[in-house]
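Lab meeting prep.
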Amino acid sequence: MRESQRRLASEESSMVGLKRSGNGRVRVELLDGEHITIDLDRKSRGADLVDRVCESLDILEKDYFGLLHTQRGDPRVWIDLDRRLSKTFRNEPWDVRLAVKFYPPEPSELQDDVSRYQLSLAVRRDIIEGCLSCSPITYALLASYVLQAELGDRQSRVSVATLSQHHAIPLHAVTDTTEDNIDQLYRKHSGQTPAEAEINYLENAKKLPMYGAEVHKAKDSEDIDIILAVSASGITILRDSIIMNRFPWTKILKISYNKRTYTLRLRASEFDEFETYLSFKLHSTRASKRLWRCSVEHHIFFRREMPVKVERILGFPRLGSRRLSCRRTLRQLRTEPLRVEIRA
């Protein structure tokens, strides 16, 4: 009891000291489940925190990554890169989670081994948490690459305990047959380095239909529950986990929202005379705005040559925020040389 009281008093005095110095304390959950603590100026912006987290992990290709925090019960709200952290958070320490915001469509194009490793951790988390599902044989193949990357060449038969320890596969997907398949595939990877196993893991994971998709719950025009998934290729509509329609970015002319309504304006096909408007209802205006912002940021990152500012048109209602968190686009990352910062 006394020990816990002393620890609490020590933490409180530490927080008071931080406030007096003008610094704030951020507790960051990493993709492997570990936590780190970062102290930085309370006037710092979201971009400064992303940079500090990436520097602490030696991540060079930081434009793919972002930080999530919980806001009004929603645990998946992205930190605004241009907003002061002191305006985003109230109580300290400020809790955030490192995540991949823009999943590269071709993971092999990543030049930095650390960035590729963090991406593989993100995909593994998506699979464990059920965001990505696949067939039993694909589960087995991906799990075998995880073991090769984490443990090296096979030394003994694969066990459920080993699979659980390395978060290689959701436990609900483990059967005797799957376990045997993992063991057989693991044998075939002998000689692969951890980096090679990670590349092979990502090259297979990128083929999954929901790879890198950010999902949002909505209702269609018939008031039926659906999922809108935003990814590098465009926007996908799912009902009962079944893909009902896909709209590539080239098909989408405009994305807007007004209160709870999120609207897509689609290009007319060769069989249509007019453009098509599709509207969806979300549970709140805030959720609609988040989906709009997610869509626009993904379109900018994956389709534009460089970031653009979303301007308001005079005389028309404001159908979207102009605060977007995207510093460089995929095209810029592909053409610009990797910048290695040498720290003293």
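Slide two material, second protein:
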Amino acid sequence: MRSHRLSGFGRAFHLKCARAHAVDCLADYKVSESVRSEHTVKYVPPYGVFPLYFSLIARRPCIVETGISVRRWSLRTARTWRQPLRPGERTSGTGKPVSNSILLSLPDAEYRRIRPHLQFVNLPHHENLHEPGRKLKFAYFLNTGMISLILVGRDGKSVEIGVTGKEGFTPIPLAIGLKISPHRAIVQVAGEGFRVNVAALDKLLQSSPLFQATLNRYAVVQGLQVGQTAGCNRLHNLEQRLSRWLLLTQDRVDSGSLEITHDFLASMLGTDRPSVSLTANSLQKKGIIEYMYGGVKILNRKKLERSACECYEVIHQFDGEFARQLDQRNGFGAMRSARSG
């Protein structure tokens, strides 16, 4: 039997498993208090999160009555079911932890349909995920890293118009059944995640209304970001745009150190390498960043926010509202699932 990670609901318990089905990794846990009543947990999801029933157990030693040897578990501080699932509390069919916000927000029933179709992928720096005008093969849901959406002109010049991290997915046209995209998608910051075959995604969306609604909402948020970025590239100076880009990237990779070259930054910002170097040196002299060959380190985020144009705050607001919607649904969805388990 696959061992399940236990969420904490008190002090040390003596537990042993009452029954488990190896195929589905489901188990019944009959838990008795040392004095009187008992509680039975009828279902443990295959991605390893215990239902709400454990929160009903008194904080005293208890025992699960089976024929399997007793094992001691240390159960740490309780976490209420109104809080969103944390990264790693769901896994793919091959046991890889899930950190993508969209996948974590889905109800249990819909996630169980999607889970077998999640193919784990490593995403190295500069990997090209899809080209403009070509048939799309996969949807990508990142755990870590960042993807840039690139607009490519006929003359070969390019500019970044949007970014996606673990908060979303790409390519956006798949949310409404389109099989081509007008943009190129490149891995800007190396990471990992999952991909789903387009044919499988189409079937899943037909039977998973909340999954469909979530992708639609993210498509709207991404469209707002693209429009704001287009205006930013036209109206604001390079220092403001570089500051905005660094802030958006840090938000998605949770790190102040970013591996990026002058040339790639120039391509993302629609300018030339010497201009990027001059602008980065200016920010470095102000003590905002440390710029070195092949990377940037953010030293003072508050100053960087003041250096950016208003576009960062607008995009950040869109992202924040989408995240709050996911968190709210996630918390209440987990609670409902626990009650029906």
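Talking points for slide two:
Confidence is low (pLDDT under 50) at residues 1-83, 332-341.
The chain has three domains: 12-80, 101-231, 236-313.
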